[in-house]
Amino acid sequence: MDCDKGLTFVGHCYPACPQPDLTMGATKHTDDGFLTVLLQDDIGGLQILHQNQWVDVPHTPGALVINIGDLLQMISNDKLKSVEHRVVANEKGPRVSVGCFFTTALAASTKVYGPIKELVSDENPPRYRETTVHDYAQYSVSKGLDGVPRLLHLKI
Q: What's this model's pTM, rounded to 2 decimal places?
């Protein structure tokens, strides 16, 4: 499927914040690629949205956090879910993390992705229209992090 052909590494450094209740590290969003592998330090701040409640993702020494991305949710036809998450500011710091994003967004490709045929049936029709990774990434960047799921753009 070639979804493993592109890797993007991103380092995040959130400084200590004297008034964390007045700011946000990163607003609510999902990752737009296929899969994200995250190494975070012991400062904390990563939260996931679970049953309409924000839940802290605790630091576990030596552990990696794995996030399903939008494109994996789309090709799995919702069998796998992209998790909404955010980073909250903290008085301690700096908070440092390194993310490895599995996406081919930076490579020029005309490969079209859509729900995998084996996961689609009369009882489970496609829930998303097809797109290229490039087009979805362009849409994602232009839309920004406004709190509205980007996958809605592809919903049928």
A: 0.86
